[in-house]
Amino acid sequence: MKRLSKKAATLFGENMTKLQYDGSSGYACGGGADFLAPTLRLRLRGGGRLLSSNRKGFTLAEGATHVAMLNSQRRFGFTLAEVLVTLGIIGVVSAMTVPTLMQNYQRKSYVTQLHKVYNELSQALVRYQTDKNAVNLTEAGLSSQDNFNYFVSDYFKIVQKCDNSLTPCFDDNYKTLNGGGVNFSNGTSYVLASGSAIRFIVSVSGDKIGQVGLDINGQKGPNILGRDLFFIAVYKDGVLDDFNGGSASLTEEQRNSIYTSDCQGSGNVSGWGCFGKILNDNWEMTY
Predict the structure, then answer these.
(1) Which residues on neighbouring strands pair with residue 146, listed in sequence order?
(2) 67 and 113 share a domain?
(3) CA–CA separation, 195 vs 166, rounded Å?
(4) Cis before residue 99, ω within 30 degrees of 0?
(5) pLDDT tens-digit readout, 160-199
(6) Same domain for 61 and 15?
(7) Are the C-beta atoms of 200 and 149 separated by less than 8 Å?
(8) β partners of residue 82
(9) Residues contacting 83, CB < 8 A, separation 6+
């Protein structure tokens, strides 16, 4: 038996013509209309004209004037409440994660610039000692403030010199991680082509012949010891390390001890400990 389609149509009126299957050629409609597959032909009572369609459907009621086909496609979407809830969840997650991501990015940016200046300084010291044909930096003549200044002028690209002054090469107000002050003596300073500010200070103690005050981005913020300001000890054999009054290289325990007492200390500090902590943590700023 052939199957009648279930495509819906609006039915009007009270009396329905009766659809019958004649078992041979198709379907017949009571009241004078016939229905032959696959074309639907309906004749309306009361003189209506013949309708034909390839669409599947039902017999119209007497007196019907039109057919309204129902859309079989279902559309799916989100309600306004669902959208608002989703946006709220995204906002909460962003508020929790974005600040941490930004802080980690900033730390990596500080360390990258510090490492760049460190490499530049280390290579310049090696060239200086080689050019002087000396076995160490002391024999090479790097033992006075004037010679330190000549070294900077000859082995670095200088874009600004601040005679007998930290400013405007450096900022005039530095803080520690805990909000304390930093002891930073005045003296001739320089701004390198990289934008870093550098200040060499002759300070002999053991194997240490001097130290470098370094702001990796000059006067730009945050101007905090351990973020963009660092102090690096220069030893006569060319080693760059932190300082504890002895010889280089320092042990991991020595560096951690200075970091705790000075870099993380309260009140005015000398500035040691932050650079050593970064060396201990394999050039990562973990604090």
Answers:
(1) none
(2) no
(3) 15
(4) no
(5) 999 999 999 999 999 999 999 998 888 999 999 999 999 9
(6) yes
(7) yes
(8) none
(9) none
Whether residue 183 lies inside any domain: the answer is yes
80-131 vs 145-155: helix crossing angle, rounded to 10: 110
The SS3 of residue 254 is: helix
CA distance 249 to 272: 15
Pairing of strands 158-162, 50-53: unpaired
Tens of pLDDT, residue by residue over 101-114, are: 888 999 999 999 99
Question: For residue range 9-47, what is the model confidence (pLDDT) as tens digits?
Answer: 343 344 344 444 444 444 444 444 444 444 444 444 444
Do the Cβ atoms of 68 and 10 come closer than 8 Å?
Answer: yes
pTM, two decimals, is: 0.68
Give the Cα separation of 271 and 183 in Å (integer).
Answer: 7
Among 62, 90, 118, identify where a domain stops: 90
CB 244 within 8 A of CB 282: no
Token pair, residue 253, equals 């325990």
Q: Which of 90, 124, 153 is the last residue of a domain?
A: 90
Domain match, 157 and 192 both = yes
Give the structural domain span for 212: 107-280
Residues 234 and 116 in one domain: yes
- Joined together, the tokens standing for residue 152 give 């900077």
Number of Cβ atoms within 10 Å of the Cβ of 202: 17
Instruction: Give phi and psi for 162, each to the nearest 5.
Output: -115, 95
Structure tokens at 96: 């929790």
One domain for residues 81 and 145: no
